[in-house]
Automatic annotation (TrEMBL):
Homology family: Belongs to the flavin oxidoreductase frp family.
InterPro entries per the UniProt record, alphabetical: Flavin_OxRdtase_Frp, Nitroreductase, Nitroreductase-like
Pfam families, A to Z: Nitroreductase
Protein name from the UniProt record: NADPH-dependent oxidoreductase
Gene, per the UniProt record: nfrA
PANTHER family with a match to the protein in the record: NADPH-DEPENDENT OXIDOREDUCTASE, OXYGEN-INSENSITIVE NADPH NITROREDUCTASE
Alphabetical UniProt keywords: Flavoprotein, FMN, NADP, Oxidoreductase
Secreted among keywords: no
Biological role: Reduces FMN, organic nitro compounds and disulfide DTNB. Involved in maintenance of the cellular redox state and the disulfide stress response.
Names of required cofactors: FMN
Species the sequence originates in: Mammaliicoccus stepanovicii
GO molecular function, one term: oxidoreductase activity
Annotated CDD domains: NfsA-like
Domain spans labelled Nitroreductase: 11-164
């Protein structure tokens, strides 16, 4: 019996080691078509997907990300917010759309559109037996990525996605998520501090066990520790400036 989409979601884990087996053009097309059928704010379709097969371009993008699987994969996608086509329509129709795509709301709309399309691609790829990993690391140098991919104004790279057949030695298991009741609030948000902290503590213990088991006791980190370490550093402080340069979030 074919597995349900629910089952598929429960098996997800990021894959970072792939077999040397390129995706066919037909599979690439199907994946993009799956992405395109995601819901899109007001039918705006404010994204594009750039497929990268050229090893030299992959190598250049790997210099930005620092991650080997940007090169070693079956195929690489780069997801961009794209209002370039809207800027052309604006010119052609003599419209007054700049306020829309240069606003904070325009940025949110574009980012949401990109994420929905990308997750459709990811799920479809996983359904076909491929593994995927998202690559926010491409935002380490947005200017460089824009140069490598010839991105015009009103186009902003959000993340990449490596896709491929998981290598045989990529053993692992899905990472446990936060407790259901911590993430799900019915009718109203429950900000009860004691309850929230208790749930986080429980999750911290589970994640600590998970890392201890996976690394034979080498790594023993709670989720809270991981999050504090990561979120206490100011990551990519140039992003607002880069967005402005590309014609985003000016209003
Ligand atoms: C937008 C986004 C960007 C990400 N960027 C990277 C990345 O640059 N490198 C990487 O190895 N994983 C990256 N990931 C994968 C996350 O680390 C991973 O999804 C998370 O740790 C949960 O693990 P799982 O996907 O195996 O369940 C990214 C995920 C998302 C959604």
């Amino acid at each position: 019996m074919k597995q349900s989409v629910y089952d598929l979601t429960q098996q997800h884990r990021s894959i970072r080691n792939f077999k040397d087996e390129p995706l066919s053009d037909e599979v690439v097309k199907q994946l993009v078509e799956a992405g395109q059928m995601a819901s899109t704010s007001s039918y705006i379709q404010a994204y594009s997907i750039i497929g990268v097969r050229d090893p030299e371009i992959k190598k250049a993008l790997k210099e930005v990300s620092g991650q080997q699987y940007v090169v070693d994969n079956g195929y690489l996608f780069v997801y961009v917010i794209d209002y370039y086509r809207h800027s052309l329509i604006n010119e052609k129709e003599n419209g007054n759309m700049n306020t829309s795509f240069e606003s904070a709301e325009g940025l949110l709309v574009g980012a949401i559109d990109v994420a929905l399309a990308a997750e459709n691609v990811a799920l479809t790829a996983e359904d076909m037996g491929y593994g995927v990993v998202f690559l926010g690391s491409l935002r380490n140098d947005v200017a460089k990525v824009s140069e490598i991919l010839d991105l015009p104004e009103h186009v902003f790279p959000l993340f990449g996605m490596a896709v491929g057949i998981p290598s045989d030695n990529d053993q692992g298991s899905p990472k446990q998520r936060l407790p259901f009741e911590h993430v799900f609030h019915e009718n109203k948000y429950n900000a009860d501090k004691v309850a929230q902290l208790e749930q986080i503590e429980r999750y911290d213990k589970d994640i600590q066990n998970y890392y201890e088991q996976r690394t034979n006791g080498q790594r023993s980190e709670t989720w809270s520790e991981q999050i504090v370490n990561m979120m206490s550093q100011k990551t990519r402080p140039d992003i607002l400036e880069r967005l402005n340069q590309k014609g985003f979030i000016k209003k």
